[in-house]
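Q: Joint fold for the lines below.
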Amino acid sequence: MTELIKTENLGRHFGEIRAVDGISFSASRGEVLGFLGPNGAGKSTTMKLLTGFLTPSFGTATVGGYDIISQSRQVRSCLGYLPENAPLYGDMEVADFLKFVCEIRKIAPSDRKRAIDTATQRAGLAEVLSQRIETLSKGYRRRVGLAQALVHDPEILILDEPTDGLDPNQKHDVRELISTLAKDKCILLSTHILEEVEEVCSRIVIISRGKIVADGTADELRTRTESHGVVKMRLAGAEAQRLTQSVAAVSGVRDVAVSTANDEVLLQVTPHNGDFSIHGLVERVLAEHCEIRDLSVERGHLDEVFRAITETVDTSGRP
Amino acid sequence: MIDGANINAICKREFRSYFATPLALIFLCAFLILNGFFTFELGNFFELGEADLGSFFVWHPWLYLFIVPAISMRLWAEERKTGTIELLFTYPVSLFEAMAGKFLAAWAFLGFALLLTLPIVFTAYYLGDPDGGVIVASYCGSFLLAGACLAIGIAVSAATDNQVIAFVISTSICLALTLLGFDPVVQALHKVFPPTVIEQITNLSFPFHFEAIRRGVLDFRDIFYFLSIIGLGLFSGAIVLDKVKAQ
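A: Joint structure:
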């Protein structure tokens, strides 16, 4: 079995509000699935459904092969969860708290020390083990939250905004940790930081207003942007007018924009999705006796995709 | 399926958490001082000239009205406020196990507070020859009464994330159950209801059953009454919790 998380038309409403409105996706071992969406899109609610904290209003899901409704306890046994804002028992010492988690997670007494050592080492907590949780900084508290999710070495990790509120160094550490864990686990993480998604996630699901509006790798999603594939060149010795006409005739070119700066010409070519080739474009430019000083191809920006997709949905007339 | 190990783990964690802050110390001091005040000032323990602990136990229903909700108000209200409820219920534990674990921790803590009043027993033995059986029964009754108040408090605590509201509502419910067996109230009720109805009403009250045990008779019906209140409190609390935990 490779699909460790699988949802089918999963939904949850609170009164009139459909927080999660029929979402279907799956994630396998070795995958880091990034859950992306504006605030209030339903990311946290979906995670609460998968972790058994909430029961769905409709639809089903399996986690680790277990049904989230009828086998909720098994589901909760096989996953590690970091809730939003990492709530913790502030009056406990870190070590005592992790011992409690070991007990509740049914780790045999003889294995507890090793389990706690591994989790604290992974989360970088060794130096604060005897401190009370409420005296710790935000970064350390987040790490305690991660350690409690890791203590039983689950194969599925669900992390709700794991780097929210951390400083850049701490964010980096957490992302490194996630990348290290990713090899033999299935990780679902939510965030609204796009660079984070690009850095750690192997796949992205964008959700907006309770629905999935995009599902793919970062590269796949980038192809959806206007700027994807746009070729920019800085040329010397070109004659703007003639160059424009000449380039526009290259097959697969949709739009050509030319501007001049100093003695250089800036050429921006927007291709069609189909039969455009950079090779053909470069040949044509060289045939105009220009010198190419710089050439770049835009990959597209995730934030553009994000805005385009989520704003389209926002204006779709739903209340 | 109820997993005793989970109840044990939650109970231990909860019990320790009392002693992690000055809360336990303040509570125990308040409990002992109030007990002393009621027994010696209002109950005239010495002036009665009898070596029994009636003037000590008779105040317990009134004392628990305020003391027990002070313990129970935070049990769920705090978990909901800090969000740890989400952590707890995404561990493989059931609502009832969590409820029972928390209840047992708080009950054990109240039992510990009750044990600290033992010097008064030694005093009674030093002064005379009290009936040991009555004292044991009274302690059992008092412990059961504390458990019943606690179960009501824990159910109310599940329903709100505001500790003040939890305190006021639990105290009100316990007060109602105490007043229904309080003589001046019972006499006032006699003017409105026929005696058979009055009997049913007083049967539901704390004092009716507590007094019976306090006299030294450990009747099954009285024990059953307190255990039912405890069961009802935990059960309804678990149902309420399931409904409101996500809000």
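Q: Anything notable?
A: The longest strand of chain A covers residues 3-14. The domain at 231-297 of chain A is CATH 3.30.70.1340 (Alpha-Beta Plaits).
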